[in-house]
Amino acid sequence: MALIDAYRKDTGAKTQIPAHWIGHPVLGKPFSKTPRQKAEDQAAQAAPSTPATGDTTKGK
Fold it and tell me: Where is this region: Disordered (predicted)?
């Protein structure tokens, strides 16, 4: 289970929560991602996927 940094919306306290809580209607309601966590998520989505090491299908 991956933990992410988040802020509680009601108190502003920074905490770590399971990633799957974000977007959940009940568990994720009092939390928002930190700016750093949002940037990491965007960078992960923007990174180009590379073929696995040893992929021999290229050029066939």
Answer: 23-60
